[in-house]
Structure formats: structure tokens, C-alpha cells
Amino acid sequence: MSIVEEIKADPANAAFTKAGWTPVLHCPSTAKILIIGQAPGWRVQESGQMWADASGDRLRTWLGVDRATFYDSGAFALLPMDFYYPGKAKSGDVGPRRGIAERWHPKILATMPDLELIILVGSYAQHYYLHEKASATLTETVAHYQDYLPKYWPLVHPSARNNIWLSKNAWFESQVLPALQKKVATILQQ
Description:
The chain has helices spanning 3-9, 14-18, 42-47, 54-63, 67-72, 100-109, 123-130, 138-143, 163-168, 170-189; strands at residues 33-37, 76-80, 117-121, 152-155. The chain is of the alpha/beta class. It has a four-stranded parallel beta sheet, with helices on both faces.
């Protein structure tokens, strides 16, 4: 049974499976770079393709890669903290369900032996993977990205909702992104 089928069969996902939803993830065994985000939005749940929107365009620009490299090269894996759209909240979407990453991520990570970098997009992924190492705020964590290398690279979400954050933190585009692009290019050239 494939991991996708196992996820669908998990009793915790019964309502989603009954509704005909497919878990959203893309984790080729050849991946060198893994991007972990929070949970799929509604459009992603419908399309089944993560980062296929304006946020994904910005993310690919930040990484210095085109769509073909991102989706078709086998070098990138895309894994959310939860595999299903969690619903609407007052501001944005509901966060990923607790326990999903704990149950499934170790098994999925084991299928990608060539990973060289895990990019943690947003606070949910950062808190889960960096634990007590994460700085007090997302801004501090992203600013101190070097503290988490060589395994992890924390990023702010590339959503337009973060345009104000980006304008207040010019160091991100002038210092963090060039370093990230260099790291990604080095990994892809190997």
C-alpha cells in the first residue's frame, strides 16, 4: 500500500477520505530539497498541486528556480504539516491538525534518503521541527537562519499577506534570499 493510500486509510482522515479528498503532498524519492508548509488551502486541495498560486510564484523566485525545476525535476519535495484543507478561520485558514506530522512525517522523510535541505515555511513547521531551538518570534527565527543550517532553513510564508512584514524587514531580501538562492543552486548542481 502506498503512503497516500495509508494516509487515506488512517481513521483520523476518515471524513476527508469519505468526502473523496486526496491527501496533498509531493515527495519523490530523489528529492534533495524538502519544503514543509502548514496545510493546503482550498484551491490546493481542489487542484492537488501545492504552491501553484501567487505564493508559489514568489517562493520559486525566492529559491531562484523555475516551475519545471520545482515540479518536474524530482529535486524538490513538498510536504504540508497536514494533508488536507483544515477550513476557514476568522483570519485565514485554520491551522494544521495536531498529531498529523508526528504520525506521518518520519515515515515520509524515510523515503527521501538524498535530502540535503529542509525549508520550513511559516511558524507551524518551524515550531515542530526546530522545537526549543526556534527563536521567540518568526522574525527572529528567520533572521537567525544560519543557526539551523545545514539541515533546516526557516522562511516566512511567501503570501501577499506578508507584504507588510517584507517591507519592515528589508534584510530578508538583501541578505537571506541571496544566501538561500546560492544554497539551492549549489544543491541542484550536485
